[in-house]
Amino acid sequence: MVLLLGLIVLGGFALVALRFPSQLLCLDTGPVVQADAIVLLGGGAGERPARAAELFRDGVAGSILVSGAGDANDNRRLLVKRGVPPSAIHMEPNSTTTKQNAQFSIPLLRQIGAKRVVIVTSWYHSRRALRCFEHYGKDIQFFSRPSYFAYAHTEWSRERTNRRIRLEYLKLIGYWIRYGVCPF
């Protein structure tokens, strides 16, 4: 009986999580008056560098750290194409996971004296990314300003966002259990 009740509650949580991912996965800390740096995480479909360049042009921060193996150079080119001067771009091209994004970027952020940092990623990845950076860089204040590409429910199947959302929930739980990165 207790097992059945537990399964019903778990099923209810799963239904709520899949029905309301924007409310559960997306963390946007809102406008930041001034930060020392922006960290642009790799991945996505080109919307992340567009968002980072937008924030840079708005004067949120004077430098951008591009983090992530595979597309770091492409993201750098996209930033320059969108008006970010090459001298304002720092590179961390070795990380392959969100955990490594944080672990490899935080020492570089400390080197440039960053105390207030904006994380740019996709909306469905923003909770895990922000919590990961906060977990590994307790001496730095982090903010989240995600991209809202494929945010509307009508765009999910076309952009394969349904699959990304389901995987993100599994990764949130995995990071909590394996690395102690609490999603709340």
Describe the structure.
This protein is α/β, with parallel strands linked by helices. Helices cover 48% and strands 12% of the residues. Helix 3 (47-57) links the parallel strand 1 and strand 2. The longest helix has 19 residues, at 161-179. 39% of the residues are buried.
Percent of residues in helices: 40-55%
- Globally, the shape reads globular
Counting copies of identical and different chains, the oligomeric state is single chain
Which regions are unreliable across 5 or more consecutive residues at pLDDT < 50?
none
Topology-level CATH name of the domain at 27-148: Rossmann fold
Individual helix count: 7
Mind telling me the CATH class of the domain at 27-148?
Alpha Beta
Whole-angstrom Rg: 17 Å
**Mean of residue pLDDT?**
89
Descriptors for this entry?
single chain, 184 residues, alpha/beta, Rossmann fold, five-stranded parallel beta sheet, 5 strands, 12% strand
What is the topology?
Layout lengths: L1 H18 L1 H5 L11 E5 L5 H11 L6 E4 L4 H10 L7 E4 L5 H14 L4 E5 L5 H11 L4 E4 L16 H19 L5
Parallel strand pairs: 1-2, 1-4, 2-3, 4-5
Helix pairs in contact: 3-4, 5-6
Compact overview of the structure:
This protein is α/β, with parallel strands linked by helices.
